[in-house]
């Protein structure tokens, strides 16, 4: 095989890898640039997705596997976030507080009656 062909193939592979790394770096930088946003909001709707299961002794139980929380900001904007079992906190609907989110991820909601946030341990 001619040497120039192998150099061409190697060059194309190196350029492809370089472009992929550059695109990944750029996307990560862009995501970091859009930092968390704080806004006054009210929890207006909670939807729970539940599943049923049986314990070994035959008792039937249900557990929440996913929740969708909808908030309304003071600017009448609706924000919806899906949360799973890693989030903890109990707040009734129609509670106003401080909502912190980043892109499409709920970071924290704090109101006088409680907090919803992600658990990092457990």
Topology of this protein?
Layout: H1 3-33, E1 37-54, E2 60-73, E3 78-83, E4 87-88, E5 95-102, E6 105-111, E7 114-118
Antiparallel strand pairs: 1-2, 1-5, 2-3, 4-7, 5-6, 6-7
Question: Care to describe what's here?
Answer:
The protein is of the alpha+beta class and 122 residues long. The protein has two domains: 33 residues; 82 residues, OB fold (Dihydrolipoamide Acetyltransferase, E2P). The radius of gyration is 23 Å and the shape is flat. It starts with a helix and ends with a strand. 7% of the residues are buried. The model has no long low-confidence stretch (mean pLDDT 82).
Please summarize what this structure is.
The protein is of the alpha+beta class and 122 residues long.
Q: Can you tell me the overall shape?
A: flat
Widest β-sheet, arrangement of strands: 3-2-1-5-6-7-4
First-last Cα distance: 58 Å
Evaluate the radius of gyration.
Answer: 23 Å
User: Per CATH, which architecture of the largest domain?
Assistant: Beta Barrel
Quick tags:
122 residues; alpha+beta; OB fold (Dihydrolipoamide Acetyltransferase, E2P); 1 helix; 25% helix
